[in-house]
Amino acid sequence: GENVEQHPSTLSVQEGDSAVIKCTYSDSASNYFPWYKQELGKRPQLIIDIRSNVGEKKDQRIAVTLNKTAKHFSLHITETQPEDSAVYFCAASKPNTGNQFYFGTGTSLTVIP
Amino acid sequence: EAGVTQSPTHLIKTRGQQATLRCSPISGHTSVYWYQQALGLGLQFLLWYDEGEERNRGNFPPRFSGRQFPNYSSELNVNALELEDSALYLCASSLTHRGLGGYTFGSGTRLTVV
Q1: To 5 degrees, how large is the angle CA A14–CA A20–CA A22?
Q2: Mean per-residue pLDDT, A25-32
Q3: How far does B108 lie from chain A, in Å, by closest CA?
């Protein structure tokens, strides 16, 4: 199967600082890596994703990087704001598994105003 | 467009009972996925249905089962409930399982087993 590890489990940053969350995966066949944000009491929502043929993708204040050789990918949030406070999950999926995701255990991000 | 809807939002059951959770996918989506989100354990894959068939299941015992109806809605059944089954059960739908893409989650059913 696939094993996705995520760290840190909790992260506190001052408003305006950057936050970085890292994930590693075990199966080199994995080729799609989405990131989900889950605010308290709400559903997980897709915020950014990256495919294995790309090394980096950016969307305004968030970016994701992928190192296929090392089998790790990271979420970067710049100029953090209090509304970025949430639990973030990374995930990986492999071809021919029906878009099934293997999730990390989540990072609880707190942005301190 | 309506999102993925799940019912009920909350469910309280006694140990040993059965629970039935329901999910309606986004219109046109044929694939439905079920995940269990237990406290501190992230999201664990439970079941995947597509075109009415169970296509894959995660590492859960057989008392976790379900089905997908002709209209692509889905039902998750948990038999012989145990205390550790208490969790948020999330359903997601996808237009197709053949391509890559993030899917949309429903708001979940919070199952509490007492």
Answers
A1: 150
A2: 93
A3: 7
